[in-house]
Task: structure prediction
Amino acid sequence: MSSGSTVRAHLSQTDLLDDLSPKEWETPSLCDGWRVRDVAAHRALAQMGWGRPSRR
Result:
């Protein structure tokens, strides 16, 4: 995936999440035991590099 398409995909996801109601954030996701907000947080932290081993 090119960096341009990655940015477009990220912005599309951001737009979708921006429109969620408080009730929708608490909706169970397709991931067992995870709510929509849990999946969104996981994806955001993964994008930022959290949880990856540090390069020393």
